[in-house]
Amino acid sequence: MSDTGYDEISKSWQAEIENSELQDLEDLRLSRMATYLSKTRLSLAEIPANEILQTDLLMQEVQNLEFMLNDLLMLRKKKILNAALSQRRPLGTMTFAEEEYFNRVLRAVEGHLESTKSVLAGAPLPEGKMHDKDSPQASRTMTEVTSSSERVEYVSVVFLRPVETAFVGLDEETYGPFKAGDNAMIPVENARTWLRDGTVARVAIDKKKGHD
């Protein structure tokens, strides 16, 4: 297997260990790492049964890769969690999934702090938060939360490669076609694959709708 793929994972892991701040990790780079691990596993499966030494060497490489990638992501998760609890944005570039995780935790922290401030100020809790879990009000609240979580979210991207065919987003609106260099706000779910294969790069994330 290529030393380049192994070294990329190893260096990213070492950098995350050696620095207290979150290091840069883009979706495309993480996708390359995952692809390299997948190819290494496939190579292991294709080795003839009588090639014991080669099997052992590649098995060790797979185990090393799995450990480094898992530890890399767990280290980053802890740093992102600590940043959210401190209500500060990490300095390093996050993957899309990490950014979503950070935003969810940050919203929960901010909501809890607001509730705490209200209690300490002697203010009554907002109506709808003082109810039994089995009450009709609780059911309505859970429905509202579920509905809120299903709203379409958007991401601002720049197209690095052209997309010549228009497509329908999850919001049922038509987007494109796009030329390389075009900027657009598109639904998150539509952007995921393109972020991983390098068709687009993130510019900024905004939950409000709007596109070119």
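That was protein one. Protein two is written in the same sequence-then-structure order:
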Amino acid sequence: MLIGRHSFIRQNKLSDVAGRIDYISNPKRQEHLYATYQTEGATPEFWKNLARENQLDFKTSGTAGKCIEGREFIIALPESFVEFKADDVVRLFTDSFHKRYGVECSAALHHNKKMTNYHIHLVFSERKMLEHPEVKIATRNMFYDEQGKHRRTKKEILDEQGKLRAGCSIIPKGEVYESHIFTKKDEWFKSDAFTREVKEMFTEIINSHVKEESEKLSVFQQGGVYLATKKIGKNNPKEAEIRADNVARQEWNRTVDVALVEGVPEEDILTVKREKITDKTLQSIRTHGWLPDMFQQIIRGAKDFLQEMIFKFKLPPKPVPKIDLQEWKDMRKLMEKLQKQSQSIKSTQQEISLLKKQLSETTGFFKGKVRKSLKGKIEQAEKQEKHIHTDMEQTVKQAGYPDVQSFAKTYQKSEKLVREYNEELQAWENQTEPKKEQSSEPPKKASIRGKLHRYQQESRQQPKQTVKKKSMDREQ
């Protein structure tokens, strides 16, 4: 598949989930805010309680760094989505996520300041509400040291000047000092597999609503033939470096597209990527450290190598059947119809033979009525046989053949030609599959179509001959 356009769906960790939700959904803070949407339980109180419990658990764990209170997906949308009602768009993506993962969500639909990026921010919780929450209220002031451990007296968390030591905290009487409102964090939300699953789900939703085939997106395949480009964030001091890096990556990706179109196997492209980019980059880093210019040179060197491979690569052209396939299909349909009629004639003939045998065995003075009934059935069956045969003759005449015999001869010769072509095509595929670099001449079938038409013309021009009734059944 050619590179086309990849979907942009990024996951972020949130250390201030309530603040983030306010930022994405507050009209005073967003110049181009079109719609917001929350699942039923995603109230401000929910996010406040979620943040509090996450912070308490984080402090108790003693883990370094920042507490992750929630997570967010940023989903870039095709510009054609502006044609849809904004409320419907944000609801579609949010409800799809909520239905699949069962966690509360808050979302907003924006344009950036330059009006070039139509996107959704979807904030979600890693935890679910417990059916029976456990909340403990402080009956007196509660004191906690730097490790989040409870201390009996305030004196234990003060410094020599009597001030609260950094990292220590006091929970006033009447406030929650311990709560278990939520389940534990779902570890699945931290995995790469989850992120990829969500990207595929949202990409599928996008593709099911775009009108133009050119707008359809695909999820970038890590470890594939292409090189991913990097997003340039706001005020990034390495903007020039990233931009130059992306140019080199795009040059490689365009060359990959040409290679795929020319028939270079993906396995060969992956080998070039691994040996000429991945391995050389690792070697360069070990020797010189990270040098952006060196990485770009490595990519361009790999691109040049791949271009040379394209020039040298010769994939034999796949044989194109010269036979009129539609005409052959029509003949097949006609033969199937005749075979059904032939089968009906055979069944009727068997019935007539059985009735005649019964008639010959029915003797005696008192069997007159039975003999009369059998004779009537025989007469009816013989009429049916003649009727079916007449239909058979009319069928071939309507197709342009003088009689069944002429069509049968034409069909058998044409079938032989088609079988020969299929055998030659299979032989060519067997020859080219294991070693594609060796060019071979495709089977020459230019004469097949001419022969087929000649057979048909000959049969259709033959004078009508008397043909004995015989079955058209044949072994397949």
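The CA atoms of residues 414 and 452 lie 6 Å apart. Keep this in mind for the problem set.
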